[in-house]
């Protein structure tokens, strides 16, 4: 499904995304090629790089096709395959925070869905780079899993129950976000 474009960029696939913006629904076309570089990267007023991520989730289907209330979340491997985490990456100047969250989920995990209300903000230091970050996480109710996505050659994705995901996730702040999501969904079911 490759389509050549005059600018020399090869688009792997275009996806229609329906985004809610200021009370209005709009359709946008998104190319499934990972962004690179830091020239559009956002930083807060203290110089911390701003990153955004999602916890992709769904409710498990039973063998007869009915949806249960059993929650599953999608975890991905790091690019080097050593660690498991939720999709996250830089929030860039030319997009809203929700658009960045959805873009990262598409690029890293190959899932499309509804970005829901923010789970929170966390401040942390990268162990590998010693860099300060501000991280924001959102739930993503998954509507579609793509067979091919920009990082499908460098990342694995796995659906897990909450306990399994909590056990394998390498980042304390993502575990806290997962706990908040579970509490939020439990309160909605009561």
From TrEMBL:
Residues 47-182 form the Nudix hydrolase domain. Keywords: Hydrolase, Magnesium, Manganese, Metal-binding. One of its GO terms (cellular component) is cytoplasm. Its cofactor is Mg(2+); Mn(2+). Gene3D superfamilies: Nucleoside Triphosphate Pyrophosphohydrolase. Pfam families: NUDIX. InterPro entries: DDP-like_NUDIX (IPR047198), NUDIX_hydrolase-like_dom_sf (IPR015797), NUDIX_hydrolase_CS (IPR020084), NUDIX_hydrolase_dom (IPR000086). It comes from the Eukaryota. GO terms for molecular function: metal ion binding; pyrophosphatase activity. PROSITE patterns: NUDIX (PS51462), NUDIX_BOX (PS00893). Belongs to the Nudix hydrolase family. PANTHER family: DIPHOSPHOINOSITOL POLYPHOSPHATE PHOSPHOHYDROLASE, NUDIX HYDROLASE 17, MITOCHONDRIAL. This is Nudix hydrolase domain-containing protein. The lineage of its organism: Eukaryota, Viridiplantae, Streptophyta, Embryophyta, Tracheophyta.
